[in-house]
């Protein structure tokens, strides 16, 4: 084309198409990145509270069973405590319940309420920041628990809102969201375990106030928000938005009627989470190896990190491998429960590395069940029902976790009353 020669109509149209496609590509990758970061920020506080559970219980809620020193007639006598387990007087399952029950309540109610996405996300950001502040600055038990509860409300509201909101984007954002939530696990657990080596528990939580700030910046400045009446479509491999007639809102009865059809997704997912969180909050604390490079408290923290590594790997894998039969993962997770329950009773595993291997496998199963469940739903459920269905299904993992919290407390207390066995082979 000669310099200064005006473009023909066909050339202008070709340039317009190219510009639209390049803009669509940039928006697509911005949205993928935004959903990953939002998944990370949304679950970060929840993960940190669980990682901090052992420390919160020890520092805020009493004592552990330790050797007893007595003074009798001026003589110092130390009671023989050989075989006594080092247990918190309250199971970490108590923190788990405080961390999941409010989230479950939000997930149960929110799908049936009006969908004001900006107001919901503003609430998530404020509650997340408030949770870190309350737990860090608390001087009483009720304020620490309230901080955990507020963090749970933020996480639950964010999950049900953003998974529902994802129906307006290409289905691949489910994969990036899930990967981000898996990243929250490993980054949250690892950052807490690492920072507490240099800072106090309270100062560590204050540093983490940066997370809700990042969450707000990502949602309002990074994520490209589609018009209210648009859905994603694909042309020549490029995702873009097209205006359509708004689908009428479903009535409360119509939403309830969707629940029975969602049970095939929710029951297997709920069982996987029941088994894995029974392990996490009921058994981790009772696994202890003496005379190694980690203290008991450090062992608990790094088992959480190990678990979250498995979750991150599997939640990031759905674009490489998809698994439809979630019930198989539930069965395998139950086998993990049996193996690790017997470890707490008999101390029969000769090395902590074997425990780390089982815990990594546990995380792989849990993350795989989550991402494959929601990915299947995003491809199998009709678009008209997808938004509300994704929101309802988020209850499944929370119900499983809540049941695990209730179950882990009596089991924890029963095992704590048993004599601590000698390690096999020691």
From TrEMBL:
GO terms for biological process: lysosome organization; regulation of intracellular pH. It comes from Bombus impatiens (Bumblebee). The gene is LOC100748029. This is Battenin. InterPro entries: Battenin_disease_Cln3 (IPR003492), Battenin_disease_Cln3_subgr (IPR018460), MFS_trans_sf (IPR036259). Keywords: Lysosome, Membrane, Transmembrane, Transmembrane helix, Transport. One of its GO terms (cellular component) is lysosomal membrane. PANTHER family: BATTENIN. It is a multi-pass membrane protein. It is found in: Endomembrane system; Lysosome membrane. Belongs to the battenin family. Gene3D superfamilies: MFS general substrate transporter like domains. The chain crosses the membrane at residues 117-136, 177-199, 205-224, 326-346, 352-375, 387-409.
């Amino acid at each position: 084309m000669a310099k200064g020669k005006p473009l023909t109509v066909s050339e202008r149209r070709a340039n317009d198409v190219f510009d639209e496609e390049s803009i669509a590509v940039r928006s697509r990758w911005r949205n993928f990145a935004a959903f990953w970061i939002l998944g990370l920020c949304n679950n970060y506080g929840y993960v940190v509270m669980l990682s901090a559970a052992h420390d919160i219980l020890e520092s805020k809620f009493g004592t552990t069973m330790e050797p007893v020193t007595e003074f009798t007639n001026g003589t110092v006598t130390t009671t023989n405590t050989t075989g006594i387990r080092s247990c918190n007087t309250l199971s970490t399952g108590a923190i788990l319940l405080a961390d999941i029950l409010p989230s479950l309540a939000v997930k149960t109610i929110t799908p049936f309420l009006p969908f004001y996405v900006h107001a919901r996300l503003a609430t998530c950001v404020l509650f997340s920041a408030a949770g870190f502040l309350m737990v860090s600055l608390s001087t009483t038990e009720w304020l620490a628990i309230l901080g955990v509860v507020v963090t749970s409300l933020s996480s639950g509201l964010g999950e049900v809102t953003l998974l529902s909101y994802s129906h307006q984007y290409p289905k691949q954002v489910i994969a990036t969201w899930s990967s981000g939530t898996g990243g929250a696990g490993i980054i949250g657990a690892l950052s807490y375990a690492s920072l507490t080596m240099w800072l106090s528990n309270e100062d560590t939580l204050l540093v983490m106030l940066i997370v809700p700030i990042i969450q707000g910046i990502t949602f309002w400045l990074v994520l490209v928000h589609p018009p209210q009446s648009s859905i994603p479509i694909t042309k020549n491999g490029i995702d873009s938005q097209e205006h359509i007639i708004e689908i009428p809102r479903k009535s409360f009865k119509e939403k309830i009627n969707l629940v029975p059809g969602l049970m095939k997704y929710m029951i297997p997912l709920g069982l996987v989470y029941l088994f894995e969180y029974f392990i996490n909050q009921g058994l981790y604390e009772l696994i202890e190896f003496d005379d190694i490079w980690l203290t008991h408290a450090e062992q608990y923290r790094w088992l959480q990190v190990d678990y979250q590594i498995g979750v991150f790997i599997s939640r990031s894998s759905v674009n490489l491998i998809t698994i439809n039969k979630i019930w198989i993962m539930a069965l395998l997770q139950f086998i993990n429960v049996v193996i690790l329950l017997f470890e707490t009773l008999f101390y029969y595993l000769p090395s902590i590395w074997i425990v780390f291997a089982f815990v990594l496998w546990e995380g792989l199963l849990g993350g795989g069940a989550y991402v494959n469940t929601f990915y299947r739903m995003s491809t199998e459920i009709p678009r008209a029902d997808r938004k509300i269905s994704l929101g309802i299904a988020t209850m499944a993992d929370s119900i499983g976790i809540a049941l695990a919290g209730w179950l882990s407390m009596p089991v924890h207390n029963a095992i704590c009353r048993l004599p601590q066995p000698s390690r096999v082979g020691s």
